[in-house]
Amino acid sequence: MARHEAFDGGEETRQRITFTIDGEKITAFAGQSILEAADAAGIYIPRLCDVEGLDPQGSCRVCTVKVNSRPVASCVHPVSADDVVENDTEEIRRWRRDLIKMLLHEGNHLCPICEASGRCELQAMAARFETLEPDLYPYLQPVRPVDASHPDIMLDTNRCIRCGRCIRASRDVDRKYVFGYIGRGIHKRVGVNATDLAHTRIDLDDAAASLETCPVGCIIRKRVGFFAPIGRRQFDLQAPGDEIEKRKGEGK
Amino acid sequence: MVNVVCSKFNSDRGRLIDILLDIQSTARHISEEAIEEVASALGIHRVEVEGVVTFYSFFSQTPKGRVAIRLCDDIIDRHAGAEAVGQVFSEALGIGYGQTSTDGRFSLDKTACIGMSDQAPAALINNEVAPSLTPDTARRIALRLVQGMPPESLFEDFGDGNNSHPLIRSAVNNNIRLIGDILLAGDIESGKGLERAFALTPERVVEEISGSGLRGRGGAGFPTGKKLALARAFPAQRRFVICNADEGEPGTFKDRVLLTERAELLFDGMTIAAYAIGASEGILYLRAEYSYLRGYLEEILARRRASGLLGGEIHGSKGFGFDIRIQMGAGAYICGEESALISSCEGLRGEPKNRPPFPVEKGYLGYPTVVNNVETLCNISRIMERGGAWFASYGTGQSAGTKLLSVSGDCGKPGVYEAPFGLRVRELLEMVEADNPAIVQVGGPSGAMIGKVDFDRRICFEDLPTGGAVMVFGARRNALKIVDAFLEFFIDESCGYCTPCRVGNVFLQERIQKIMNGFGETGDMDYLESLSRTITATSRCGLGATSSRPVTSSIQQFPLVYASLTKEPKDGLHAGFDIQRGLEISRKIARRQSMIYDRRYGEEDGQA
What is the CATH number of the domain that holds B469? Predict the structure, then answer.
């Protein structure tokens, strides 16, 4: 697996270390990311921009934990022996809730009319952190471009959360570089490597266009909307993290 | 044209910023076609080029004027009358902000602090600086520009010191107000520190600097000797020394003075740092706003090469070689953050990198890199010349040496002060002849906002750390307007990489503006503090970690300002909800009045 290459020191030679997450003793390889080590131990750390199979980038910050009292993004922070990691505390849950809310209010996330509803990781995370009710944060209601030029795929960047998963998938897995970040600050967005999507080399079979890559409803496949009925959608059946938490006690 | 520019830089992808700066200055914008051509000449993807073009504020995708006027828009300039000056330019040239005249001659924009707060309001006219503007001088300048005078001929009276040097010829003044012993003293002979360093082993040089107690002058205060030792210890084929001359913190301008008056000392310092860690390559990262100093600095580098102070084997060093190139910035405050600065030197979007690994291990191009502030590097030269113990005899226990302070705002003597660490804010305010000071911003927007109760605090790492900016605000200034301006700055300058900084700052500003507009509620301060905690804790770099400080420090220091502007919401309604404002939009759309809220509904049907 190409994942987290930066931290790999070769399987055999890697040194085993121990550290704790919320008081629980965990075994890990030296240099492995905290998030990766937690996954293996069956402890789920919520995340949005990180996904199995792509290098981590540490931009959504939802996976923030405290390591020896200092906040870090666990997907890009290598673990050291005897680290004391805090994950599921009131303070950290509060941060994560705020971050999820920021993302929900930054874009136009109208779940009832969104094709990704029920398989949207942002929505699932909002449910996990009980932030589905509107609150004090202002809605920024952006007006960003929608690119429907491609025959099979369309982009509604009003729903983009800048996780960059499509960028990394296209660059590192598909080797096509269809997407890239453009702009700065609140105007930062995902751009395409041509005048529009139709002029890029993207294809339905690309990892960048797969349902697992875009966590929200920004990259949409044409003609296959709302394919699963309510009750049988991906996260109706199993929430993000359920699978990781099942590993616990399985001797992994 | 694009191909010529690309080949000038050997079609090196790492020099993308320089290539784009060249195209921008010739073609006045970077067109879609130019983006395509650059991408194909460098063998990279078009979206990578577009990503860089859209990141830096000095690049534009629509044509700027052949004469581009950028009016400095920080709070100090606003208080000094920038708006009236902008009005004059706007009327004389017939264009508004963000516009280019139809004949393509002029464009007018606002820009973040250009490092001239001691002579505000100021503007950049192409690469020239127009300081101390008034509506009258602005009118004269505009008239000359309309008559066709080139920007470089606008000023006949040059500033003091090297500002009148044939290669600078700028109207900028140094405004040196307090001369300290270490950096601004008149009797400094460059070359001495370098000579003494070469007489020692690199290890001894690191020890000497460590022993001096020197800490980074950019504001964070990391021990310089330790940084050098770490970069030296990490095994690598190549190593780099980078000088951070991207002082973008609003209200900071002391590096401008050092670059103008102490360039030799700075290059000595870079060479010593390189000798200490075993680097053979150096970069001076110069902010775009200081382009007017570039020719002068290039000439000094050329002279040093000619006299054997730079190049293959440096005179007196027994085989040590080192050279320096100047990397221009392109308008991005975030590039003052060391890992973002490295990204920018590599021709990338100026986004910080994940740490670890730290730049001292994997920095520029993946090699150990020491990034230091201009002032820090100048200090290194002096420490080598006079010894660490001499240096440590100035300042306080944890803060050795002196600090250059850039003082601006409501005071009689704005300018650069070199004072030993430990100076009390009150003492400084007396020196600068502050005019009824009520608020002092120590360290710029990312620093601390303090009121009278804290004027006895000391400027040093133990108490009030600062990169050097001290903004003085008199009693008639509105604290919330200042906070609002700072947040606007952080929103504009956030790279947008991570969620809390990209989005959270926008939310902070929304709430501050709500309070300023009279719709504040008692719960708003808790909201602001809680949001600030999340932004600080979860942001990826120093920008996000400090962007909420104007909010939190103003709430802490000026609770009465907030209390007077917020009220208890009644009847369970949001006090921030203004029904009339909401209705105004509806009235326009529906072209009629409200049946419930407009008493005279029906009397003048359709006459909303």
Answer: 3.10.20.600
